[in-house]
Fold:
Amino acid sequence: MYINGAWVDAQSGETFEVTNPANGEVIGHMPAGGAPDAEAAVEAAHQAFKTWSNTTAYQRADLLYRAWQLMTERAGDLAQLMTTEQGKPLRASRNEVNYGADFLRWYAEEAKRVAGEWLPSSRADQRFLVLKQPVGVVAAITPWNYPISMLTRKMGPALAAGCTLVLKAAEATPLCAKAIFEIFHDAGFPPGVVNLVTALDPKPIGEVFTSDPRVAKLTFTGSTAVGSMLAGQAAGNLKRVSVELGGHAPFIVFPDADPVHAAKGAAALKFLNSGQACISPNRLYVHTSGADAFIATLTERVGKVKAGNGMSEGVGVGPLVNEAAVAKVARQVDDARDKGAAIPVGGSRLSDGDFAAGHFYAPTLVTGVTDDMVIYREETFGPVAPVIVYDDVDSVLDQANDTHYGLAAYVYTQNINTAFRAFEGLRFGIVGINDVNPTSASAPFGGMGDSGLGREGGHEGIAEYLEVKLGGFSI
Ligand code: NAD
Structure:
């Protein structure tokens, strides 16, 4: 772990294994930290805040630029590590490293744009000054599916704002986290400004993060179940909270869209990271008029997606994170099949030959999906594309909104009125209009409803780490 500028073991001396999900090989060991380690990290961040919060935005920006440079220089090694530890194909790992690095560069720039306001008053002898200041020590918890970009998406804005932080990485991907903290160390961030704890059992760490009076803010990315529980604990202690949670994205193909183009977009999007993305489409609604062409193109595309070890050339879908993830996907597909869905491609786990020691599920297309199927409501987090054919254009937005999640939605249309109506009518934080990649460091990312609170990226992302202070001046 990285605490107060030094690499340390867990106080208990315990460690845990890190494995490659493609073949089960042990690829490293990391400290199994506990509450005392989390407390030591919080204390380091608390002490460092006194000086770090008083540095200039220019000083903080220079260090963030340096970290971005180092990340860019090490991109090849980081991508290899990510594929080995997390499983996504090497090309996708490279993309994630670039996306992750961009949060450091963008917030190096944004650090210098944090500004207050000078406001008039109704009293002639009074002026108001609005000052933005860092909230304090930030506790961050991150998931395994994007094991680098989910860290920098929090670290970039928190550090730019003048906060110090303690981060607990996911137990499946602590080696990627370690590599990122090596970069912050080498970039010259002062001791205590960034701290990393790792753990096999995250619960005691979560308890410190949500109850320690020295922590001002909790930022979490992960499942809705854990995020809402931690947000509740933290809110009870009046900490600031941002949570980026799960999703169940609709993907709507309107009658005026080109169904072949839309199907190509859906295939490219659905199998990213083996479907283990919070913005992965989970319900593909296609109008009857384009259904045959859409399903035919998707059948052909899904049939060509090659599953395997992400290190191998041509692999489009890597392993799932663990056996429980494979079992969840299998349960959803079996339920759909039992309730009358057709499965023209895939529909089973892959366990022969090279697949035997990994956690693989075949790239799968399910058609004839109905709202009584589990897959229609539950996040899949696997390589399964569920298709629903609809007739009534007027009610498709209501169908798309029929979920307690509200993260991402996608729309294919060539009609500007339909595009605006869908953009305004969908109750989701992110809407891609003929666009399957509506994310960037410069844009606010986040969800409505059970998909979370707060935004990451963009101007909104740094505001999550700033207090607003009002000064009244009588002159
Ligand atoms: P998870 O909630 O199981 O774990 C996320 C993190 O929380 C991990 O670091 C884990 O160790 C930690 N954690 C788990 N239980 C904890 C506890 N009791 N106390 C403290 N920490 C605890 O989720 P996951 O399976 O790692 O990630 C997948 C989920 O993340 C999916 O639902 C996905 O949609 C979501 N996700 C959301 C976004 C987003 O930006 N909205 C991005 C990526 C992933």
Summary: The radius of gyration is 23 Å. The pocket of nicotinamide-adenine-dinucleotide is lined by residues 141-146, 150, 168, 170-171, 202-203, 205-206, 221-223, 226, 230, 244-247, 278, 379, 407, 447, 452 (CB under 6 Å). The chain has a mean pLDDT of 98.
